[in-house]
Amino acid sequence: MSEPARVEDRREEWNGPVPVPTGATVPFWAATLEGILRYQACDCGNRQLYPRAVCTGCGAEDPPFEASEGVGTIYTYTVCHVPGEPGFADRTPYVVGVIELAEGPRLLALIDADPERLEIGASVEVTFWQVSDEAAVPVFVPA
Ligand SMILES: [Zn+2]
């Protein structure tokens, strides 16, 4: 595991949805506050994000967590000119993408970058925006 990623305190300004840690997601969100992106790595070889109570590969309960290096590539993305969330209205255009982590799992996340300069396959790394006392959302930036 490399150094933890940067965590920016955005609690005052954030108007978007706030994740509520429950069940299998509690260890995931706790780690985000420390700048660590965790995924689940099951004994069967399956790796998954977001966290679930069971492995999507074999059905095992509570697959263990591992820390990602926080780097990956843009698998696909979209530029949102019309906010999908009312709280994102003052943020348009913003970018949402699917990031394929170096370890394999893919996750949907905000990409904080100039939409004109993005391309599929580009390298990105994780940072975190802390949006509540309980959670920091992963936000990817060009690596
Ligand atoms: Zn499994």
From TrEMBL:
Q: Where is the signal peptide?
A: none
Q: Which residues form the ChsH2 rubredoxin-like zinc ribbon domain?
A: 29-62
What top-level branch of life does the organism fall under?
Answer: Archaea
Can you give the residue ranges of the ChsH2 C-terminal OB-fold domain? Answer: 67-128
This chain belongs to which protein, by name? DUF35 domain-containing protein
